[in-house]
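Sequence, please.
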């Protein structure tokens, strides 16, 4: 059985990879994937701390389920925005988004 430290190390690793990807990528899709990676790290923490603090409770799992639903809706909206940006600018780099200003 994996102890809590394994889950916390995995979650921290996913969080730092997501932060690194968010700060270094110029492509909007890569930035979205990095944000999803950070959200998944938080979901792992919800489930791990629920198992540690309340072994018979289900609250952490419900928070995780709610977070996954919110991130799915956020991803759908973000991809729709990215498609419209690509149609306008013919690329999806963050550097070119200032051309969309009034």
């Amino acid at each position: 059985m994996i102890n809590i430290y394994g889950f916390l190390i995995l979650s921290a690793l996913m969080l730092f990879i997501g932060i690194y990807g968010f700060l270094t990528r110029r492509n909007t899709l890569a930035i979205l994937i990095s944000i999803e990676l950070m959200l998944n790290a938080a979901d792992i923490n919800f489930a791990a701390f629920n198992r540690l603090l309340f072994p018979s409770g289900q609250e952490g799992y419900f928070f995780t389920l709610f977070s996954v639903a919110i991130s799915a809706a956020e991803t759908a909206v973000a991809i729709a925005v990215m498609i419209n940006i690509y149609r306008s600018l013919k690329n999806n780099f963050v550097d070119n988004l200032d051309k969309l200003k009034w």
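The chain has three helices and no strands.
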